[in-house]
Amino acid sequence: MGLETKPLSTLHEKSSFDLADFEVPTGREEEWRFTPLPRLRGLHNGKAPASGHVVVEVDAAPEVTVETVGRDDPRIGTAYVPRDRVSAQAYSAFEKATVLTVPAQAVASRTTTLTLRGRGQGAAYGHIVVRLEPMAEAVLVLDHRGSAVYADNVEFVVGDGATLKVVSLQDWDDDAVHVSHHHAQLGRDATFRSFVVTLGGDLVRLSPSVSYTAPGGDADLTGLYFVDAGQHLEHRLLVDHSVPNCRSNVEYKGALQGEDAHAVWIGDVIIRVEAEGTDTYEYNRNLILTDGARADSVPNLEILTGEVAGAGHASASGRLDDEHIFYLQARGIPYDEARRLVIRGFFAQVIEKIEIEEIRQRVLAAVEAELEK
Amino acid sequence: MSTLEIRDLHVSVADKAILTGVNLTVRSGQTHAIMGPNGSGKSTLAYAIAGHPKYTVTGGEVLLDGEDLLSMSVDERARAGLFLAMQYPVEVPGVSVSNFLRSAVTAVRGEAPKLREFTKELKTGMDNLSIDAAFAQRNLNEGFSGGEKKRHEILQLELLKPKIAVLDETDSGLDVDALRVVSEGINRFRGSGDTGVLLITHYTRILRYVKPDFVHVFAGGRIVEEGGPELADRLEAEGYERYAKALA
Ligand SMILES: Nc1ncnc2c1ncn2[C@@H]1O[C@H](COP(=O)(O)OP(=O)(O)O)[C@@H](O)[C@H]1O
Ligand SMILES: [Mg+2]
């Protein structure tokens, strides 16, 4: 399969399964300029042989079929075509893929959890396909732990009228490197809820994207990240509205603390000529807690049709508000506790969106732990 | 028995001198009204005593029961027994009223109140001030009306039971009913023990509900005249023009 280009939008230039279609990035490219390439440990330039292991454990609801398949399985690559060099690298190098299927009309009776556990040295490549057949419903957790140099692609195929809710936790050890694409393809009246939590790793570059095959699709992408000294946590969102009357909402919030803590958030939304009646909003806020931390936040909204229902974006990065801290301290609350209350408050709205109690508690505890640092 | 002593206090904001030598002593059992035109420095006095980081003390001292308040952090001052009801309470997103109040009460009392007792205490306090129960779940001051914000300040006053309370224009923006409810709260607080009140106001109307023992006229960053309650009546009749002229 060759190069596929959609020249009408500058935000999504090319897709290809062929690694040779992507030059090795130099860092000057728009899509790579924020990423410290040397820290990718060779994932971007072919110098990271697949000598490592990321073990995938699946704890599935009884309604969900789990298969481990080879590269030639026809269900692989139906929804997503790699969009950058590392994604194409992962696509050309993975050996086994995990395919989860929720049959038509089935409602998964409990959460399905995929734990991806890195086992130290060497790079690893992966591929996951999650298929919800028409009218199916499921809740999925992707739980990334351990130490790894890992690149993967995850395809969510959400059939007509189906509902998929996914929590992806990047809770890696401090030395992990993870470059990942999560693509959701939404059928008619399909609902997709993504909740991304990125806390661990030396470098995480996660690119969630959404496309629609028929009207009525509804995507809600929420994210939370906490960046510590030396960490580079990058989220690059792309919502491609190419059919009429679909909805998307993106809301990412992050806090940064420590020397060389670096957050990058790119929010690309394309509303193509055909996509009349689109309703979209994207939002990113960064709370910079110390000197030496940096947040880059770039929303891009490209509207190619005159008929939208709503389109907006907002992005802001700032410090803790002195007035908030003063008000709490003036009531006797010590500075450290006042700070914790305000930061918790900052994240409260997004954390409330996590519907799985156990995961919400885990995220709350992780945020608390970050605040203790 | 507590005493707040303000001695020759000088304060600047953004390198501009605002307070130019304030002297005032408030003892428990007393209510002092500070009255003055807008921009005369009343809020500056309140914030400087409470320790707001924007206000720089360039001279003088403030003592609470002989202790140097100015060397304490904002929260230490509050725990030492000082309370400031703010003219413009700030909105703090994502922090619920109940969580905030429990944290504040725990900090000031030095131990967490028993949940059951605190719930009861909070309910009584809210009922007294005609605050709806649903209020406790809302985010701090977020979307509160002017009156709700002021009632919430007085709720905190009653829960935290400070030695000395500084109330900065608690009456402004209140309709007659809310003014009465808030004044009753202040009076309950005054009647609850050995507490002193420094009531900052632009208008005399709250003084009909909360009777002051002393009235101080503030102009140009300091006290320019002092007297008893009768001074408030004169201000009501004459306004502040006299003092503006005197300063010019
Ligand atoms: N944060 C600030 N930055 C700059 N100027 C200020 C600030 N706060 C107060 N001022 C100035 O200090 C003076 C006194 O203000 P304020 O204390 O608020 O008066 P009052 O409360 O009596 O109306 C005014 O001239 C005001 O403009
Ligand atoms: Mg004022």
TrEMBL record, chain A:
A Pfam family annotated for this UniProt entry: SUFBD_core
InterPro entries documented for this protein: Fe-S_cluster_assembly_SufBD (IPR055346), SUF_FeS_clus_asmbl_SufBD_core (IPR000825), SUF_FeS_clus_asmbl_SufBD_sf (IPR037284), SUF_FeS_clus_asmbl_SufD (IPR011542)
Ranges that cross the membrane: none
Residue ranges of domain SUF system FeS cluster assembly SufBD core in the record: 121-346
GO BP terms, alphabetized: iron-sulfur cluster assembly
Family to which the UniProt record says this protein belongs: Belongs to the iron-sulfur cluster assembly SufBD family.
Protein name according to UniProt: Fe-S cluster assembly protein SufD
Source species of the chain: Thermocatellispora tengchongensis
UniProtKB/TrEMBL annotation, chain B:
Keywords for this protein: ATP-binding, Nucleotide-binding
SUPFAM superfamilies per the UniProt record, alphabetical: P-loop containing nucleoside triphosphate hydrolases
Gene Ontology molecular functions: ATP binding; ATP hydrolysis activity
PANTHER family (alphabetical): ABC TRANSPORTER I FAMILY MEMBER 6, CHLOROPLASTIC
Keyword Iron carried by entry: no
Keyword Cell wall biogenesis/degradation among record annotations: no
Organism expressing this protein natively: Thermocatellispora tengchongensis
PROSITE patterns given in the database record: ABC_TRANSPORTER_2
Protein's UniProt name: Fe-S cluster assembly ATP-binding protein
Domain ABC transporter: 4-245
Similarity comment text for this entry: Belongs to the ABC transporter superfamily. Ycf16 family.
